[in-house]
Each structure stands twice: as C-alpha cells, then as structure tokens.
Amino acid sequence: METTVMVGEKPKVTSKIANALGDYSMKENRGVKNYIIETDERRLIVAPAVGHIFNLDQVSEGWDYPVFDVEWKPTFETDDSAGYMKKYYNNLRDQLEKADTYINACDFDLEGSVIGANVIKQITDAPDEKIERMKFSTLTQSDLRDAYDNLESFDRGMTSAGIARHILDYYYGVNVSRALMQAVRENDRYKTLSTGRVQGPTLKVLADKEKEIMEFEPDPYWEITLQHQEFEAKFKDNEKEKPARIWEEDKANQIFSTVKGESKAKVRNIKVNNYKHKPPIPFNLTGLQKEASSQFNLSPKKTQSIAQSLYEDSLISYPRTESQKLPPKLGYKNLLNKLKSQEKYEDLAKKVLKKEQSDNLYTRQGKKEDDAHPAIHPTGKHPSNLSKMEKKVYDLIVKRFFAVFGEAAKRQSLTMTLDVLGYGFEAKSKVTKKRNWFNLYDPYVNVEEADLPEVEEGEKLEVNEFDLKDKETKPPRRYSQSRIVSELEKRNLGTKATRASTIDRLYDRNYIEESPIKVTDLGLTIVNTLEKHAPDVLSEELTRSFEQKMDSIRQGDKTSEEVVSEAQEELKDTLNKFKKDEQEVGAELVKTIDKERKRQRRLGECQECEDGTLKIIKNNGSRFVGCSNYPDCENSFPLPSNGDINSMDEKCEECGNPKIYVSRNSGNDYNMCIYPDCPTKDDW
C-alpha cells in the first residue's frame, strides 16, 4: 500500500481537509494532530504546517554586506519568536519519512506553493514527479473533496516563481537595510532601518505626495452663493458650463455688490438627465480593503486578517485574489439557495433568485483576473461565533455578492440655472428613481441624494441672501491606507498578499505616521538618501520588471536562477557605490534620526510651569508624559499601555493639552488628548 503525506498550511485548515475527505483516525505526534485516512490503494496522512516552516538565511557568519550566499533553514533556527514551530517541523519530518508520494495542500498561490514545496523538498529532497498539488478556493467539504479527486501535477512554475521572489526580497531587504544601518553605525548611532524591493518604491510614492504638499502654494479665489430656503446655488460664469471660482477679488466684489440686494431669482433653464447607475463589481482583496475602510474605518491589514479568518471558517472563498470575476461554474443558484436558508438573507436571496425565473442569472464582472482563484464570495455556510467586526465584514461580502446580480439603478440629475440681473447661479440635484441593486446592497450604498423643488422655467423664486466667501485652493490629499494599497495595485507594486503589510512596516519604522498618511522627516530623508546613492532601490520600473519576470518563471519562459542572477549583478553595483558613500550617507541619516527622536517625544509646552516641555518618557517598561523641569515640576499624564505613540504637534481644542496619535497592531488607530478628564473623552 502506498503512503502519501499531505501538507496543509495551518492546523485549522488541515483538520477541515481531513473532515472533508472522509473517515479518519487522529494520531498525535510531538503534540501535533495528524489525520490518517486509509483505503485499499492508499494510506493518506494529513499533517499541518504553520506557515513558512523554512525561511532564508545567509550561509556565512557576519553582518557585512553584500550577502548573496543564502540557504533555507528551519524558521525556528533563525527567528527567536518562532520556537513554537519546532514541534511542527519535527512532526512533518517524522511523517514525511514514511511517505512514498506527497501532496501540497497549502493555499493555491505563490506563498502556499513555497510553504508546501519547501517542507517536502527540504526534508525529503523528493523529485517533482512524486509531488501532487491540491487546488481549491473555498474550504467547504464539496470543494475540498473535488480538489482531492482532481489532484494536479506539481506546480513547478508557481513554486519557482515564489522561491525567486523570496530570494529577491531577501537580497534587497537584507542588503540595503544593512547598508543603511551600517552607515548610521559609522556615525556612532544605532537605529533599526529597513527598505526593500517593494518597500522602497512604496515609500517613494508616499514621499512624492508629501513633497507636493510641502511645495504647494495656495491660490486665493472667491465664491458667491445664492441661499434659497430649500437649496444653495453657486455663481456660474455664463461663458462656462460649470459653477466657476472667481479668481479676481475686484470682480467678485463687483458681482456681489450688484446682486446682494436682490430678493428674486428667475429660473433661466432646467436640464434633466436620466441615467443608469450600474451595479458594483465583485470584490478582489484590494476592493474589499477599500470598501471596508470606507464603511468601517478598517485598515487594509485588519481587513485582510478578518477575511482570512472567514475563509478558514469556510464562510468565504480565498481572499488573497486579484480577480474581479465570478465564473458561472461556481454555481450561482446553489450559492444563492444556501444563503436563502440563512434567515438574515432569505428575502434578499429570493429577490435575486426571481431573476432566474425570467432570465439567466448573470453578474456584473470586473476587468481583473486571477488564474488561481475567483473573486471573493460567500460559500453559503451558516456563520457562528463571529466577532462584531467579523459579522460586519461577512455581511459586506454577502451583500456585495447579491448586488452584482442586480439591475442597474435608475437615477436622475437635475440642473437648474437661476438668473439674477444677468448673472447665473446653478443648483444641482441627484435623486434615485428606481433603486434596483441599491436594495440588495443596503446599508452600504453611498450615493448623493439631493432633491430640488418642482419649478418651471421663467418662474421667480425667493432669495434669502447672497454670501461672498474668500477661499484658497487646497493641497493634494494625502493617501489613506486603503488608497495607497489601491495605488500600489494600479502601479503593479507588490502583491495582493503583501501590500498591506508593506504599509504596516513603514509605520513600524517611523517612516510614516497618522492617517491619512504623513511621511516623517526620517521617511523623507531615507528617500532622499536612496535617490542620491542607490536610486535603483526606489525604482518602480525595476520592481515591475521583476514582477514580469516572476510571471515568466511561472509560464516556464525563464528560470528562477536566471532572474536571481540578474538581480544579484544589478544589486552588486548599487551596493558597491553605496559603500563608498557610507560616511556621507550616515551623517545625513543621523542628523534626521536625532531630530526625529526629539520631535516624537516632545508634545508641547507645559501648562503648569513657565519654561517646561512635556515629553514622552519611558521608564522600566512603562511610559507616561512628564515635564522636562522635573522634579521642580511634577506635571504628568498617563499614556495607553499598547500601541506606538507619536506627537501630533497640535493642541486639543477643548482643554488646550497636547494630542497624540496611537497606532496599534490591530489596525484600529486613533488620536487623543493626553488629559484623562478632557471633555473629548466623555463617551469613551
């Protein structure tokens, strides 16, 4: 009888696979549960990994750079926080030694391919012919059973591409990060700094936006508005189609002085436009992250984590997908009938299923595809024991699934131009005439609803007053976390699985802060330094070209060895030049590091003494706000026990004390006044 060992990505997923495949016996080894399924032809052992059991590490010792001699080592040997992995490694080694053949049942993407293949090949050195691949997009019993019945051959291309990506990320991340830190050490300072193949270009995108904002010079302009009891109309230059800003103050004053005493306005013309508002497209990961940010103020990282939990509970399909398409082979009717059995969604599912009686069920599809997985969708399984936020994200995914089947909503815009002594003022309204898919997506529909009173051309309306407002043009908007993730997707930087964690790492390094994202002086200095001494590290084109080469590896047009060798040669030239400039680079960085440390700790003036400064103080693992004049001044405030804390350089409007920004691993960042009894905290 042949013995086959199947490697699952995590213990929870492994148990779901075993349950789906039929009768099994459970055997514990080294504190790890394995599942054994025996048939006449095969003895199948389903054993769990816990993510990357192997990671890259340098072969030689030392902390110098460049380093290109790398090898795969058990993660618990290279990472002090990964000691829990040792028992899983030992168990996998015990099981794999018994095997004649192998199955990689980790997630079907680059990371899953690397996790499973590395476990099998590093422990057994098995040939490709002995390894099969299990491909699934949901953890439902039917999909897992079908995936096992239709095993595919070893995914050599995907595995090679994934391994190449890991090596490139190691080369760029370790070498350039060491170069930065070594430069700082040369100037008698220590600071953990990092950059990488995707992290560098991402920081540059954010820094370019920050520079735009810093260099922005506002232009003054004036607006004149007509106030009616039911609406507001803006001054409209008769020569232009839309309401116009007035750029000359004299002109604005002249128009305002002419119209301000008038109490009537004549309806000059009315334009009505009936149009269709198409249903939304299915969620890919970026789309879900963007919508969850808009609806629930969730960070991309937190949304990704919640979606992963829902996937592991068999409630939704695989979330780390680029696809915006739901192929018919998913079985729309079957999924809708399963959702109909959930009381909360019964009525909505029935509405969608009615469509099937008069027409074929079809969905609106997006443009993006993913050859491994469809767009995110519910499986129909009944949820249970979900957290408050998991319920919200699940509901959002289900409602979006319903909405993509909906008919376009019918909307109407109405534009009314009023005449006052020959000057035009324009008012607009947008209303929904037939909701259609809006009813399937409530409460997540976000459209403007503003109605104007029914009037006729030539009719005269009462004017309450005219307002003249002086304004300034505003600088470009900073990126929110969800917007920068979307921007990275547009620019093809990073992957669906890594973009959120890349942003998180920039926060951890204090290169960025707050939300929307502000680039710190340290972040700007890192970009300026790399632009001058190692511009390739910030190059979007270089990063994109490597992503294209990954695809070439997957397709079999290039080998991972070729791509890694090319990257090594390019990086050697960059690092050799950097090494020559180490002292200069370090001096630039240290100046900013010292300034940034003082800024982050300084919160503002002390209100209890004349010349004291309130600072963040760390002492024996605790932290609080204290005065620089201690012990003469004992003014102090407590600080939150977890999260990174930075000064906001602004005072509370209520009590005048400094405000701080707190960023947390959970993704629920917030700002607060440091005064415990501040009125802003009344509802905390």
Give a verbal description of the structure:
With 684 residues, the protein is an alpha+beta fold. The chain has five domains: 2-154, Rossmann fold, CATH 3.40.50.140; 165-215 and 479-593, Topoisomerase I, domain 2 (Orthogonal Bundle); 220-276 and 410-433 and 447-472, Topoisomerase I, domain 3 (Distorted Sandwich), CATH 2.70.20.10; 285-403, Orthogonal Bundle (Topoisomerase I, domain 4); 606-681. Helices cover 39% and strands 22% of the residues. The protein is built from 20 helices and 25 strands. The strands form six sheets. A seven-stranded mixed β-sheet has the order 2-3-4-1-7-8-9. Helix 1 crosses helix 5 (141-149), helix 9 runs antiparallel to helix 15 and helix 11 runs antiparallel to helix 12. It is globular, with a radius of gyration of 30 Å.
Quick summary:
This protein has 684 residues and is of the alpha+beta class.
Topology overview:
Layout: E1 2-8, H1 11-21, E2 25-29, E3 32-38, E4 42-48, E5 54-58, E6 70-74, H2 75-78, H3 85-96, E7 101-105, H4 110-124, E8 131-133, H5 141-149, E9 152-153, H6 156-185, H7 199-215, E10 220-227, E11 232-236, H8 249-259, E12 264-277, H9 285-296, H10 300-312, H11 332-340, H12 346-358, H13 388-403, E13 409-420, E14 423-434, H14 437-441, E15 460-462, E16 465-472, H15 481-490, H16 499-508, E17 512-513, E18 518-519, H17 521-533, H18 540-555, H19 560-580, H20 582-601, E19 602-605, E20 613-619, E21 622-627, E22 636-638, E23 644-651, E24 658-663, E25 670-673
Parallel strand pairs: 1-4, 1-7, 7-8
Antiparallel strand pairs: 2-3, 3-4, 5-6, 8-9, 10-11, 10-16, 11-14, 12-13, 12-15, 13-14, 17-18, 19-20, 20-21, 21-22, 23-24, 24-25
Helix pairs in contact: 1-5, 3-4, 4-6, 6-18, 6-19, 6-20, 9-10, 9-15, 10-13, 11-12, 17-20
